[in-house]
Description:
Oligomer: single chain
Strand order of the largest sheet: 1-2
Strand content: 5-15%
Number of domains: 1
Structural class: mainly alpha
Shape: rod-shaped
Low-confidence stretches: none
Mean pLDDT: 88
Number of strands: 2
CATH architecture: Orthogonal Bundle
Number of helices: 3
Distance between the termini: 25 Å
Radius of gyration: 25 Å
Helix content: 55-70%
Amino acid sequence: MDKRLLSREDEAATDTQVTRADQDRINRFSTLHQKQGLLREELEAKHQEKEYLTDVTSELELADEDELVPYKIGDSFLHLPLEEVQQLLEKSTERIEKEIGAIEERISKHRETMEELKVELYAKFGKAINLDV
């Protein structure tokens, strides 16, 4: 790259030495960024599962109370009373909501850590590093 095209600030930033601690921060940022993507995918799947449970619960409101309702446990379907199935669905929905909350909390913690790392790395490297995701 022709150094005549760089400003003095940019030139100084390209001469900055990358220490082991800097490389560790960059690696940590990268790892957290990858985990964020996986957590977002998991969160989307949990939201879809919750939506499915909500739809099933709504459908069961129309069912006859005396009917046995097929309920899937593992790979098997059991015919259970409507009230019991509704209770199982309610517990499943509560479990999913807790899982969603835990995932959202992890995403938030990762985001905070990533912001801290960004501040540190941009302070040292300026425009020589790109951490925008």
